[in-house]
Design a protein that fits this description.
binds copper (II) ion; Immunoglobulin-like; mainly beta
Length: 123
C-alpha cells in the first residue's frame, strides 16, 4: 500500500472540516452554568455560541499576547460588555441574562470576532 503522509491527511481533514462547517454553532446547555471559550491563534473557539439566558461564559486567553472581548463590531462597540485587555493564562467571564445576539470582537485585532446567541431559558 502506498504511504500517505499523515500531514497530508490532516490538512485534507482540515479542509473538509472548514468547508462543511464554516460557522460552527455550539449549543451549550450545561447545567452547571459556565461555558468555556478559548482564545488561541487570534481566534475565538467556538466562534459562535448559543446559550440559555443566565449562562456565564468564560474566555481563556491561550495566546502570549493581550486580547479583549468587546461587545459589538469594530468601529461600533455595543456597550453591553468589554473585558479590557487580558493576557496568556488569564480568564474573563460574563453572565448573559438577556436573550439576544451579542457579537463581539478584540479591540487590538479587529479580525477577531465571535458571537454569543442567548435564547430564553428553557428553550
Ligand atoms: Cu486580540
Amino acid at each position: 500500500m502506498r504511504y500517505i503522509p499523515k500531514s497530508f491527511l490532516l490538512s485534507l481533514f482540515a479542509v473538509l472540516l472548514i468547508g462543511t462547517a464554516a460557522v460552527p454553532v455550539v449549543r451549550s446547555y450545561a447545567a452547571d452554568g459556565a461555558v468555556q471559550v478559548s482564545i488561541k491563534l487570534f481566534s475565538f473557539n467556538p466562534g459562535v455560541l448559543e446559550v440559555p439566558a443566565g449562562t456565564t461564559v468564560v474566555w481563556t486567553n491561550g495566546d502570549a499576547i493581550e486580547h479583549s472581548v468587546t461587545n459589538g463590531v469594530p468601529g461600533k462597540p455595543g456597550g453591553a460588555f468589554d473585558s479590557g485587555f487580558f493576557t496568556e493564562g488569564q480568564t474573563w467571564s460574563y453572565t448573559f441574562n438577556e436573550p439576544g445576539e451579542y457579537p463581539y470582537f478584540c479591540r487590538r485585532h479587529e479580525s477577531m470576532a465571535g458571537m454569543v446567541k442567548v435564547v430564553p431559558k428553557g428553550e
